[in-house]
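Dear support,

I submitted the protein below through the web form. The confirmation email said the job was done, but the results page showed an empty box. After a refresh the structure appeared. I'm attaching both so you can tell me whether what I see now is the final result or a partial one.
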Amino acid sequence: MHLSAFSIQQGKENHLGAVFSLISELALFEKAPQEVINSLPQFKADFKNKYFDFFVVFNSNKIIIGFALFYFRYSTWKGKCLYLEDFYMQPSYRSQGIGVHLFDAVKEYGLKNQCKLVTWQVLDWNVRAINFYEKNGAVIDKTWYNGKLAL
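What the results page shows now:
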């Protein structure tokens, strides 16, 4: 499917339902749907509390087909940074150049907000994503292990 027109917009409260649906799609793609324990009401409350910001991508029919969700973090070595939590485009809209524009919007947001880095995680088996990021100037660091502790 070739996309003739799309638009990227700063996320708004009325976009949260569609984005939450896409988060479920992303979790399924990443083979971890059981890991999504957040709820739409909590997601909306967290947005109102400014825990994150996001961009959405609309197709020519004004339907949200992708998103990038991010928030500020701090590096003692670099200073203020942006963490890209999720970056997702529905499969039928991939490989059309839309992701490049969405990624550029995230980078511009970071620059506008005086961030020194944009960081994120990518699964080691997601070769398409790794290639996308590297093609767009990113360095994929394979030397660090990720830690997490459920509370």
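Response: this is the final, complete result; the empty box was a page-load delay. The CA atoms of residues 65 and 119 lie 23 Å apart.
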